[in-house]
Amino acid sequence: MTREVVLAARPVGEPAESDFELREATVAAPAEGEVVVRNVFVSVDPYMRGRMSGVRTYVDPFEVGAPIDGGAVGRVVESRHDRFAEGDWVTSQLGWCEQGVVDGDRLRKLDPELAPPSTALGVLGMPGLTAWVGLVDIGRVEPGETIYVSGAAGAVGSTAAQIAKLKKLRVIGSAGSPEKVEWLRSLGIEAFDYRGTRAKDALSDGIDVYFDNVGGEQLEAALGALRPFGRVIACGAISRYNDERAEPGPRNFGFIVTKRLRVQGFIVSDHGDRFRDFVTEVGPWVRDGQISYRETIVDGLENTPSAFAGLFRGDNTGKMLVRVGADSLS
Amino acid sequence: MTREVVLAARPVGEPAESDFELREATVAAPAEGEVVVRNVFVSVDPYMRGRMSGVRTYVDPFEVGAPIDGGAVGRVVESRHDRFAEGDWVTSQLGWCEQGVVDGDRLRKLDPELAPPSTALGVLGMPGLTAWVGLVDIGRVEPGETIYVSGAAGAVGSTAAQIAKLKKLRVIGSAGSPEKVEWLRSLGIEAFDYRGTRAKDALSDGIDVYFDNVGGEQLEAALGALRPFGRVIACGAISRYNDERAEPGPRNFGFIVTKRLRVQGFIVSDHGDRFRDFVTEVGPWVRDGQISYRETIVDGLENTPSAFAGLFRGDNTGKMLVRVGADSLS
Questions:
Q1: The model scores a pTM over 0.90
Q2: Do A166 and A252 belong together in one domain?
Q3: Is B269 near chain A, with CB under 8 Å?
Q4: Residue A30 carries which DSSP code?
Q5: Across the interface, which of B252, B259, B270 has its CB nearest the CB of A260?
């Protein structure tokens, strides 16, 4: 038996506990080529909010009554795949459950000697790849440029800000608490608290690139601050994901023409072929401590929905994870 | 003596006759290297509205009390430059006046045997280059794609729509009268009248590229219709130039992320180095009649302000010009 979280109702506005249901489920016996994995960490990510709304975008919506798939890290408890053995650390898309059966070809094995396995969901996983692809392939940042990263204390933002710093950019970052700002400053980021300081004022020197994780007012301030030929790396808009009605876009959209801006959206899942290059560059930085990362870990599968809702209140510093099982197998 | 139009006041909203003043002026004797030009056509262009507002964007604002410079075509009446002789057709930035003195190095000579001189202000001039650079360098359009061109009966739009057609795209265009729609249809463009048909409905098949001359509702409809990895060639926003307050941007800005769109602004004056390539490709199409062009010609310098204001009411089909003098020299 296992436990899993299913979508009970499509959230209206902020996700509520009642939109989810914890239930017991059986774990099927693995067929040839399949592996049984016991999750240690499951990931909650802002993009999952869109999937809960039932609108098809770049990824199929979650169905009401069905389990919620997503990134997870765990250990193999039974293997019928020749690349995996009991005890292996793996990352999967098993989602919000304690245990499940996975096609071994869709698993990636982790080496816990190289990096803590949880990093496969954060700085060395999807959020890290998002940050790197955004900067390198979408923004094509150059040394000496000034970049503004909103949501800079989040999983994507904190990685983007530090990679940009290592690539010799001047980095300005926003976050939503004094503690987050302090952490960012300790990393050499010119951080400000957007709850007390207007982005417009913080960006008055001008910027060349904006890494947008937030949308809304921050986006409008960034369009105002961008220099001619600036770029917007349109990664996400967490300030908007709980909106029930589409709110108006930036009033200064016209700057895109007059300042010859390039605004480019991207979705990390289109860039899986860049994973190896990403790990080659960023892996050593993480290993050597040139990139720091933080994790906000909530305990217990039953707390996954509230951890998820917390993303939109900024409860997390760095990557938000839910621990659903022990590290050790026994 | 000559006559010139000066800016009498910064327009508030729609430009009014009282914002301009016609006055007499003297023409200085040309210094060495200078040329005296008598204008035949002066150009009125939507981008000039921004210069009247006194806000510095990519080009200096017009000053109250000062003449209005801009594109013009005329004939040399006196030359102290060795490349020009009396009678030559030239294009200059002399602007809204009947006659003026110009540095010969800033003049381009026209060959009236190759194309009517007025085309140097339209299909073979700045608006034509805008259309071509937008499609080729900014939108990077490909055969078989579907493009939507708003303002498709204007100087830029009608050229863009026809170039796109010649490059084997499916072309949908919008315009603001039955006559304009009929003209576009005669050119093989799938045209609709945006005053009677909602762009959203006309674009329900989906599009790959949007050539935006208009902004506002058309932009919002296009963002909705764009397919994944679509592009917006952000050329202008004539529906917005008379706004006194910045209106909200498109409500569906979020599609830029979810559909991985690229929205890129450009200003033709950054692309002067492409003029030769543009003429090489587009010149023969115009000469052979594969690209049609229309001109809306208003007579008399004193009618320049109302011709200009007419751009925002859609008075023009194709390029709006003001004839300020005879073709012949005598």
A1: yes
A2: yes
A3: no
A4: P
A5: B270
